[in-house]
Automatic annotation (TrEMBL):
Keywords: Hydrolase. This is NUDIX domain-containing protein. It comes from Haloferax namakaokahaiae. PROSITE patterns: NUDIX, NUDIX_BOX. PANTHER family: NUDIX HYDROLASE 23, NUDIX HYDROLASE 23, CHLOROPLASTIC. InterPro entries: NUDIX_hydrolase-like_dom_sf, NUDIX_hydrolase_CS, NUDIX_hydrolase_dom. It comes from the Archaea. GO terms for molecular function: hydrolase activity. Residues 49-177 form the Nudix hydrolase domain.
Length: 184
């Protein structure tokens, strides 16, 4: 049972510097054995939660779909299509929205096959990437990048797996998992 004098808890993705309710500078308070961000004016603890994100390995035989987007976190790096889920989206809905925005391709949610969950622990937030696979033949639409300066293309799996400087190791691991699953 919770004591009447216990603080309320607010879930946040990034630890705040100021209370979003009253503007007071956030301090820390011990809660469940650890220092936790806390607003002394509101007696409000901030429970930092991981952000939900989604990615998809779209494969077409011996090729995989990758993006080269002109955005700071991915500049010069080939990445899998995907992004952050909105607060009111389920993972498949978010993934299909991101896939269409970034590549021009659409698909039916029933054609997505769950692959794995990857946790990226960044300096300011933890992100859980729910990763799916999708056959190219299950998509509709024409490939086109979201950004004029970007590219979206199917690339040979062997070439992608042998890259050392233009793709993330975590993407390599998930591409390998997808290839292994669909070879069996």
């Amino acid at each position: 049972m919770v004591a009447d004098d216990s603080p309320d808890i607010e879930s946040v993705a990034v630890e705040p510097d100021y209370c979003p309710k009253c503007g007071t500078a956030v301090e820390t308070n011990e809660f469940e054995g650890r220092e936790t961000p806390w607003c002394p004016a509101c007696d409000l603890l901030f429970s930092q939660n991981a952000v939900a994100a989604v990615q998809v390995v779209v494969h077409d035989g011996e090729r995989v779909l990758l993006l080269d987007e002109p955005i700071p976190q991915s500049e010069g790096i080939l990445t899998l299509p995907g992004g952050y889920a909105k607060y009111d989206e389920g993972p498949k809905e978010a993934l299909l929205r991101e896939l269409e925005e970034e590549t021009g391709l659409s698909a039916d949610p029933s054609d997505l096959e769950y692959l794995t969950t990857y946790h990226a622990d960044l300096s300011v937030v933890g992100i859980y990437f729910l990763t799916y696979t999708l056959e190219r033949s299950a998509t509709a639409g024409e490939l086109h990048p979201q950004f004029e300066e970007g590219t979206v293309a199917f690339r040979p799996v062997e070439e992608v797996l042998s890259m050392t400087d233009r793709r993330r190791d975590s993407d390599r691991e998930r591409i390998e998992m997808a290839v292994e699953r669909h070879v069996e």
